[in-house]
Design goal:
This protein has 332 residues and is an alpha/beta fold. Helix content is 36%, strand content 15%. Helix 4 links the parallel strand 1 and strand 2. It is globular and about 50 Å long. The structure holds iron/sulfur cluster. Iron/sulfur cluster (SF4) binds next to loops.
Length: 332
């Protein structure tokens, strides 16, 4: 694949051309939406679910207090309340989208906390409740890399022969020094092991990374792209560092703002593009930013929605006449 990329003249790479022969659209990066389109004939939408699981980094099994940046309220849409059943959450989420897109199918996205941290029978019951809901065509399971026993992966492997399953791992950084500093409670080696064991069973593995964690230089941030490119990853989500109220990191920032580099929008866009140039071109990228609710956010207050930011990134790719993987080279 590298040779194929290197043969292309400077300019945008026809990502879909080499990933999906027959599609001629020219894109600067491999979009997750295109990845889904290759698997599903019609439109699919993720519906976020709060399944009522907890997190081993909060209850003492891996650590106490959680990751220093985490306030779990920030990634749970209104309709994800623990007291609601999976079925009820899907019903409400799907009702919202189906008015506008009656043909749409859905993926149940187990998002909040650690969605593989529970007794196996209870996990399976929740996943299957979601899959039993009409028009739910698969699962996306968000979890930590140190919470995927082989027994569970065996279950996902057999499930993935019948339906779509993607396991999304919160890696956040590839540097153990940073993982320790943010109290993740796992190492990068745990992340590598989880991704290899997942992909080794033919299950798509995704990763989630935060760009701009304290103590990481610009070059260290970009080197995450090199390390992730060595892994059999299907997809990646990038997020800017956000400082959230009522978190340990928020308090650290109040005491030592000089320890943090908060990116401006333009500076972060260039960081993202530099990162993408080094990223393996086959990894589908789902997003570049996250948006925490305004009332919980300390900084940076960019005031941009995800689609607005993505449009800016796409424009910048064009201005810089570059593309995902331009600087990627496999290590020998
Ligand atoms: S970020 Fe995830 S792993 Fe970390 S404390 Fe929050 S829920 Fe737990």
């Amino acid at each position: 694949m590298e040779n194929e990329i290197n043969k292309l003249p400077t300019g945008l790479i026809p990502v879909n051309h080499y990933l999906c022969p027959g599609m001629a659209e020219t894109k600067a990066y491999h979009e997750f939406g295109d990845f889904l389109q290759q698997r599903f004939p019609g439109k699919v939408q993720k519906i976020s679910i709060h399944a009522g699981f907890t997190c081993p980094n909060r209850d003492g099994s891996k650590g106490w207090g959680g990751c220093t940046y985490c306030n779990n309220q920030t990634f749970s849409p209104e309709y994800c309340h623990t007291e609601k059943s999976i079925t009820k959450q899907l019903e409400e989420g799907i009702r919202f989208f189906s008015r506008k897109y009656p043909e749409m199918n859905y993926l149940a996205y187990f998002q909040a906390y650690t969605n593989t941290y529970e007794e196996m029978s209870r996990l399976v019951q929740k996943y299957e409740e979601a899959l039993a809901y009409p028009k739910v065509e698969g699962l996306i399971i968000g979890t930590r890399p140190d919470c995927v026993p082989d027994e569970l992966l065996e279950y996902f492997e057999s499930l993935s022969r019948k339906t779509f399953v993607l396991i999304e791992y919160g890696l956040e950084s590839t540097l153990n020094r940073t993982l320790e500093r943010i109290n993740r409670g796992h190492t990068y080696e745990d992340s590598v092991s989880a991704i290899l064991r997942t992909a080794g069973r033919g299950i798509p593995a995704g990763a989630h990374l935060i760009l701009g964690l304290p103590g990481e230089s610009r070059e260290e941030i970009l080197s995450h792209a090199d390390r992730l490119s060595e892994l059999p990853l299907t997809s990646l989500k990038l997020h800017q560092l956000q400082l959230i109220k009522n978190t340990r990191m928020g308090r650290e920032y109040a005491g030592h703002p000089e320890a943090f580099h908060l990116y401006s929008v333009e500076e972060y866009i260039d960081l993202v593009i530099d990162f993408m140039e080094r990223l393996h071109p086959a990894i589908a990228v789902e997003r570049f930013v996250s948006q925490s609710p305004k009332e919980l956010l300390i900084a940076p207050a960019w005031g941009l929605k995800n689609f607005e930011f993505t449009a800016k990134v796409k424009r910048r790719f064009k201005e810089r006449n570059t593309f995902q993987g331009r600087l990627y080279s496999p290590r020998s």
